[in-house]
Amino acid sequence: MKLLYTSIILICIACNFINADFSHQVTLDQNSNFRLSWDIVNNDFIVFRVEANVKTWIGIGWYCTGCTGSKMAMMNADFTIGQFNSSGFLSVHDMVNGQYEPGQPVDDTTRGGTYDILSSSGYQIDGYSVMIFSKKLNTGDTRDHSIDPSQPFNMLWAYGPVQNNNLDEHPRTQAGQVTIDLLGNENKVIVVDSGNNLLRWHGSFMLIAFGVLMPMAIFTARYLKSYTWWFPLHMFLQTFAFIFMIVAFGLVIKHLDGLPLKSGHGIIGLILVILTFIAMILGGVSHLLWKKDRKTTPLFPDIIHHYQGRLVFLLSVAVIITGIIKYNSVPISNPFVICFSILIGLYISIVVYLEVVEKLNPNSNSIPLDNMK
Ligand SMILES: *[C@@H]1O[C@H](CO)[C@@H](O)[C@H](O)[C@H]1NC(C)=O
């Protein structure tokens, strides 16, 4: 009987039984319509169908029964990933992660394991990828996690960068972590997406700190010095920029469980945070050393503070753009990148305009910029 069932399943898969009705299905992601369907056969095999409206690799992963992921979601998970070639043909990878190669799944066979996908089928066309594969619930491979259908199934899902079938790292928004009841008819999917939420807050706070408050603070210091209130305003804006930055930095440390040293964005972001600290200190020292009767602005710390502040702002543009690209899947046509670039373009045009006006009309009724504090 067991053999019969197995043969039927394997034959069905071999004959591209792709639109078969599975007895269980959940949608894991609305954006990509990422769906997981499955059947458990004879309490011995499981057949999964993974499909999404994307043209990239697609994959799922799961933890050992009763284990949850560490803070790094992919640690210690067992992965099955479908990769397609340019003609749309599928190859299914049986992969492993965790202590062997954190961050990047590798084939079980390269880590002393075996290839345990019993049968597979699938295809890819524009806007749709599907893979079906069957596996024993317990493969006996030390690099696999056996699946106990009576237990909560803690799993990961992901798909790759847009229109890219190399097994390149997925953008953060294109992955998630869910718990599924494999035997339940109505699946309540608990989306454990807090990591993404932390990153959203991180990006939003940093954008306000460096994209809004800091440019206003620099503008105040450069162009509004004829008003006595420029300094309190400058301090007020920078203090809030600093608070937003610290909160955002804390969020990313919590998300990564450490300093952001693994990516270009993380490293230049860390340098930015350090330079911002230095700018704050130089600003404070400038204020303490300022004397009412001084004739010129000293190079240290004032002028250095002026230029270092601008450097911090320029670096922040690079950090924000790399951050948006890292987080989103469509770098070039990304609306956030385009809108942010327009904003920076506007800032720069305003500054160029004011500088030119100042040069052309040095005796206009404004007070010369550099003679002030
Ligand atoms: C994709 O894989 C299929 C099956 O292995 C093969 O016949 C086909 O030539 C491959 N296409 C490309 C572009 O490599």
From TrEMBL:
Residue intervals of the Cytochrome b561 domain: 166-357
Predominant cellular place of this UniProt entry's protein: membrane
Residues spanning the signal sequence: 1-20
Keyword tRNA-binding: no
GO MF annotation, one: metal ion binding
SMART domains: B561 (SM00665), DoH (SM00664)
GO cellular component: membrane
UniProt entry keywords in alphabetical sequence: Electron transport, Heme, Iron, Membrane, Metal-binding, Signal, Transmembrane, Transmembrane helix, Transport
InterPro entries with a match to the protein in the record: CYB561D1/2, Cyt_b561/ferric_Rdtase_TM, DOH_DOMON, DOMON_domain
Chain segments annotated as coiled-coil in the UniProt record: none
Compartment annotation: Membrane
Domain DOMON span(s) in chain numbering: 32-160
Membrane-crossing residue ranges in chain numbering: 201-221, 233-253, 265-290, 311-329, 335-354
Matches recorded under CDD domains: Cyt_b561_FRRS1_like, DOMON_DOH
Bilayer disposition of the protein: Multi-pass membrane protein
Cofactor(s) it depends on: heme b
Protein name (database record): DOMON domain-containing protein
